[in-house]
């Protein structure tokens, strides 16, 4: 029988790439999504496939389905979206994780959690290895997401220790690529859409803060390798591209690659915006034989090509 895989958040940016890959591999894929930040457009080509099914479902509610594996991605990832209804973000992270872990326990299936580099908060250790416990403000505007994801990790490890659930936890660093929503508010999509429309590129603060950007195909490869990794390897494991860039450097690259005449303007820095971010990926190399292959220039070129179609449409 074909392996049955549940992807929560499967209509979102990363989830839709993951679903496509699993469908192409011949898996039986069930995509569960409440379409808060995802869209049917992202999975439109899959809707006609015999081994793909879409279910409009909110993971804060229980779900009774028979599956072998679960990728738990459901959660808004852009600060604009996760701060829109912060209490709902906590519910999605925490109740959603409990529901999906309960499902994994019942069906005795393997479950992978899409955690985040945000568990490191505004890091005092640079670059960030998995052993670092992080520096997170528990009461700030980013806390609903950061602490929600931290508690989800706690739940994963407690279900593993208490009930023997087969867990895999990945910590994803800033990922970008086609299928990001044009109005999503994250930096790569913002800058590209602004550049293509000839609008000012809005750099928050001085633009000296850094991020490490991973192209989505690389991330999905790492994610699938983690799901298939050896029994007993739970993670958490960092997945990201160690190339580190300031937001000003990113803006300049995007202006050059789009040939845009847009100007760079500065806007206030949001509260608790992390100053620097860069993954240590030795563990992923050792356990998963994974490292990212797509350079920032190459990935941006592919993403710009996508938005050229999407912005015009
Ligand atoms: P996204 O917002 O594009 O996708 C999230 C998906 O989850 C959307 O389709 C949304 O509709 C769905 N969703 C949200 N709440 C839900 C709920 N209660 N029930 C069912 N579906 C729900 O974001 P993304 O960038 O694709 O992120 C996917 C996952 O990866 C998230 O869990 C995110 O925290 C994690 N992650 C992403 C990044 C990144 O840079 N993209 C970095 C770290 C972690
Ligand atoms: N950022 C920016 N201009 C924008 C959007 C974001 O300068 O239009 C900055 C933001 O302040 C942060 C970085 O880009 O320092 C990455 O922001 P994003 O929302 O993409 O992700 P996160 O902060 O969660 O890493």
Structure described in brief:
39% of the residues lie in helices and 18% in strands. It has ten helices and 13 strands.
Key words describing this protein structure:
313 residues, alpha/beta, 7-stranded parallel sheet, 13 strands, 18% strand, globular, binds nicotinamide-adenine-dinucleotide, binds uridine-5'-diphosphate
Describe the structure.
The chain starts with a strand and ends with a helix. It has helices spanning 13-24, 40-43, 79-82, 86-107, 143-163, 187-197, 216-227, 247-258, 282-288, 296-312; strands at 4-8, 28-33, 52-56, 69-72, 110-116, 166-172, 175-176, 201-204, 210-212, 214-215, 237-239, 244-246, 264-267. By secondary structure, the chain is an alpha/beta fold. It has a 7-stranded parallel sheet, with helices on both faces. A two-stranded parallel sheet has the order 7-10. A two-stranded parallel ribbon has the order 8-13.
């Amino acid at each position: 029988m074909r392996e049955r895989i549940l992807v929560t958040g499967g209509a979102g940016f990363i989830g839709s790439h993951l679903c496509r890959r699993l469908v192409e591999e011949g898996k039986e894929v069930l995509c569960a999504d409440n379409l808060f930040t995802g869209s049917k457009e992202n999975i439109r080509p899959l809707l006609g496939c015999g081994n793909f099914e879409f279910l409009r479902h909110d993971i804060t509610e229980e779900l009774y389905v028979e599956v072998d594996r679960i990728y738990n991605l459901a959660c808004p990832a852009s600060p604009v979206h996760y701060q829109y209804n912060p209490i709902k973000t906590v519910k999605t992270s925490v109740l959603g994780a409990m529901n999906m872990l309960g499902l994994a326990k019942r069906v005795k299936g393997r479950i992978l959690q899409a955690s985040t580099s945000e568990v490191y908060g505004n890091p005092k250790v640079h670059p960030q290895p998995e052993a670092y416990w992080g520096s997170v403000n528990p009461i700030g505007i980013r806390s609903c997401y950061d602490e929600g994801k931290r508690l989800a990790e706690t739940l994963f490890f407690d279900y593993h220790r208490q009930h023997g659930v087969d867990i895999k936890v990945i910590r994803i660093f800033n990922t970008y690529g086609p299928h990001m929503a044009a109005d999503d508010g994250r930096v790569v999509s913002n800058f590209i859409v602004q550049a293509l429309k000839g609008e000012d590129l809005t750099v928050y603060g001085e633009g000296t803060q850094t991020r490490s950007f991973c192209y989505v195909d690389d991330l999905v490869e790492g994610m699938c390798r983690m799901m298939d990794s050896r029994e007993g390897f739970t993670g958490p494991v960092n997945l990201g591209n160690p190339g580190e860039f300031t937001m000003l450097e990113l803006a300049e690259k995007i202006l050059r690659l789009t040939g845009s005449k847009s100007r760079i303007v500065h806007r206030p820095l949001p509260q608790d915006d992390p100053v620097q971010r860069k993954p240590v990926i030795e563990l992923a190399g050792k356990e998963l034989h994974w490292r990212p292959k797509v350079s920032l220039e190459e990935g941006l070129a592919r993403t710009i090509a996508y938005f050229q179609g999407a912005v015009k449409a």
